[in-house]
Prior knowledge:
This protein has 9 helices and 9 strands. It has helices at residues 33-41, 61-70, 82-93, 110-123, 144-153, 157-162, 165-170, 194-209, 216-224; strands spanning 5-12, 27-28, 31-32, 49-55, 74-77, 95-102, 127-131, 140-143, 173-177. The chain has a 7-stranded mixed β-sheet, sandwiched between helices. It has a two-stranded antiparallel ribbon with strand order 2-3. Helix 3 (82-93) crosses helix 5 (144-153). It is globular. The N and C termini lie far apart (51 Å).
Amino acid sequence: xxxxxxxxxxxxxxxxxxxxxxxxxxxxxxxxxxxxxxxxxxxxxxxxxxxxxxxxxxxxxxxxxxxxxxxxxxxxxxxxxxxxxxxxxxxxxxxxxxxxxxxxxxxxxxxxxxxxxxxxxxxxxxxxxxxxxxxxxxxxxxxxxxxxxxxxxxxxxxxxxxxxxxxxxxxxxxxxxxxxxxxxxxxxxxxxxxxxxxxxxxxxxxxxxxxxxxxxxxxxxxxxxxxx
Length: 228
């Protein structure tokens, strides 16, 4: 039997987004949105393995092909029952704990993820996430046993689509206030609409032109100074 993975990060991705189709393949200063998400998550010191979990629909063949060219692991599963997709991926990679990230948050910071994992470990909980955070600076970490409980017992479509609601309602949960500098709920860094994408592309191009790191700290600084 292969060694169990302590922390498996699953980046949830699909191309059939209703508001901005194929957004994960859009360019952000030379790389796709999906690559940008993977790029920052891969800097985590606590995550042992990262996979992209997309659907088995033909519309997501382009995702698998892109990831194959980048030598990034891709798992394919149910389009609408994302809970099943996560559970099947967790079984495939034999993980004890799972970090859930969505592929529309390019400024998800690796240090923030590591902080969350450390809180999760110290709390002895089955599920942890942040509160009061910049919208789009979000991650969830939960135990395999909690995911299995949800997979076996969740009945409604909402729980199946959003993965963690059943866990939050039925398992030991610990919520952490994110670091003070990121307690900015008036700021959104998710890419959900065309306007969101234009704003994020502007930020990435500004950083490239001015030799700045495209991270959440610089985004907040430029936001506060009304540059973006």
